[in-house]
Design the sequence.
């Protein structure tokens, strides 16, 4: 077994681990969706500002999920060790 | 043991780890579905906007689960190391 | 197998582990987004201060996700052991 | 393989593990941000004290995330075993 | 590979694992911060006692995070096995 194979094997595991970060965005954005739907039901006339606030906050929550994706892609396609 | 076997074995583990991200979308979208059903029960006349808001938010929450799926598929079918 | 390969392999796994920190920011910022959408629905005239408070708090919650990203990038591109 | 390589490899994994502590601060500070946005929406005239209390509490919640970062940095740059 | 290297390697991983305890304090203190901000918004004239109570509770919640930090520091700088 040579060293490159070990690094590539570990990178495949590391890429998988990095995606686990996505749990957070999924739960958080789902909570935002639920609260948004509830608020739109109560004040349909405020639908515009409610949905905009929900999507603005969801975009912020998406960031750490994207960080994980970026690290996974770096490990797979721009691995500095290989 | 040769190197390719190790990389393929680790990729199988990495693909499995990446799918753990799906926990988040499952919990979050379920919360959104619950709140949406609750809101439709209270304001049936607002069903249209409630369901649209719920589905819009759920679509956003789906993204990180899809990132995990993409990384898993890359590891399985477009593995850059093999 | 030489020592450098082992260190680089472990760094790839460590980088993936560090990204898991992002779960927190995702859940927390999503909660903030949901509460922000709810509050904007109830007091649309206070939209400005609500969104500013939400984003200020979300920025604070982002910090630990960024710490994880920084450690992952150090492990990949400025690894002190290699 | 010599002993130093093993220690450095384990330190890279340990640094990644230490960052997982950041999950807590992310969730907690996000909750504070959501409650802060909600409170500011209800009492905009009390915005000053609400935001100060939110940030004071968030600073306390940040501490354990910083402990994790400190241990990770010690493992990477001031490792007592290497 | 000698035994001391294995012990030190395992200690580095153990130090990282110990920091994961910080998740709890982060979530708990953030909840306290959110409820504190909410309470200060409702009774701004009681800000003093609210903040003192919040900080007292947060100090208690901090303890387990500090236990994790102490064990990590012992593993790194006062390791009884080396």
Sequence:
């Amino acid at each position: 077994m040579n060293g490159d194979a070990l690094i590539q094997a570990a990178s495949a595991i590391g890429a998988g681990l990095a995606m686990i970060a996505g749990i957070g965005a999924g739960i958080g954005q789902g909570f935002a969706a639920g609260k948004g739907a509830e608020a739109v039901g109560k004040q349909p006339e405020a639908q515009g500002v409610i949905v905009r606030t929900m999507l603005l906050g969801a975009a912020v929550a998406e960031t750490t999920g994207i960080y994980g994706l970026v690290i996974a892609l770096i490990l797979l396609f721009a691995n500095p060790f290989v």
